[in-house]
Amino acid sequence: MSEPLVRRMREFGETIFAEMSALAVRTGAINLGQGFPDESGPTAMLEHAADAILAGDNQYPPGPGVPELREAVAEQRRARYGLEYDPATEVFVTVGATEGIAAALLGLAEPGDEVIVFEPYYDSYAAMIAMAGAVRRTVTLRPEHGRFTFDPDELRAAVTPRTKLIMVNSPHNPTGTVFNRAELEQIAAVCREHDLVAITDEVYEYLTFDDAEHISLATLDGMRERTVVISSTGKTFSVTGWKTGWVCAPAPFVNAVRTVAQFVTFTASAPYQRATAYALREEGAWVEKLRKSLQSKRDRLISGLDAAGFETLRPQGTYFVQADIRPLGFTDGLELARALPERAGVVAIPTQVFYDHAEAGAHFVRFAFCKREAVIDEAVERLRRLAP
Ligand SMILES: *Cc1c(COP(=O)(O)O)cnc(C)c1O
User: Fold this and answer.
1) Which residues is 208 bridged to in the sheet?
2) How far apart are CA 60 and CA 55, in angstroms?
3) Is 372 in a helix, a strand, or coil?
4) Least enclosed by CB within 10 Å: which of 50, 104, 321, 325?
5) For a substitution probing ligand 1, which of 73, 95, 206, 235 has the most ligand atoms within 8 Å of its CB?
6) How far away, in angstroms, is 338 Cα from ligand 1 center?
7) What is the pLDDT of residues 96-138, one digit of tens each?
8) What is the DSSP string of 262-277?
9) 200 CA to middle of ligand 1, Å?
10) Long-range contacts: 288-296, Cβ < 8 Å, 24+?
11) 95 CA closest ligand 1 atom index
């Protein structure tokens, strides 16, 4: 039989996370590959979800999401960013940020349209751009003064008459960069000048460290009207399995997202929506504690990786550290990541798989620090075996 998979998806095989997690299970290695926390979110939020199920909140909620959550999201955007969104027409609930990204790309990109993404990119962007029949154009993030950033000339050069959208993920997975105001102004200027729509993936909006501040691109001049904001509950409240997200945008963009989402999932899970509404309103202190604890775990992992001989970049946000493998005598992160479980009993993710220009990320691997301290300590102890 000929290959049944449609042509436009053939470049997307098994994800690196599936490959590496299977390797972790087979070898018993510590998995610092995939970014999910090993502790659950605030107890009262978990109880809200459990109570909602037991109280019978188990049927289809309204397609755009339960009103309570749409209102809580609008309140959160107003309180944190000073932006007004009408919960009835400008907020839409999705099955995690992943569905928001998918529905936004399928609803806004015509076949042949170009979409700018910063590489390394979150893997679902590339797959959904391909499913839309659109074309991705990458702008490369490179280390400079201890953090990954882009060259504004390269960004401007990526725009063509076919460019329609730009994807902006900040705080950025997998580099940990939090775009500063100057970088966001450069992106905004390109959007305004070329009439582009921005899709912002803000799932790590609360998880920033030291003095880094998350700025929503939509707050910049002329940007609210052309930005589709996406966020979700998974990273903010350590419940990545809940898959409850939302889109905030002017009504015509929300309509585009809804038109797609209503046929993909129809609606997101009801009990998690109510629990998320509660958490957005009441669990700010818990999130601040999580942020501080992640910052100290970041420092713990970095000290350990440096002691093991890697050269690390200190991320300003997210769950992830980029480690340069060259000081240990390695050059290819993919090769090292495939050997690491057997050699050292630890799983990491090779950064190059998130680039179109793999050479730009060839010598980096990504480690996650959203794990218990004992797990981090054991992992870095094992990594000391790599030293020549
Ligand atoms: C985890 C993650 C997502 C997915 O969020 P869900 O709400 O679980 O769908 C999207 N974007 C980035 C950058 C992520 O790290």
Assistant:
1) 317
2) 15
3) coil
4) 50
5) 235
6) 24
7) 999 999 999 999 999 999 999 999 999 999 999 999 999 999 9
8) HHHTSS--HHHHHHHH
9) 12
10) 290/206, 290/207, 290/238, 291/206, 291/207, 291/208, 291/209, 294/207, 294/209, 294/319, 294/369, 294/370, 295/209, 295/210
11) 9
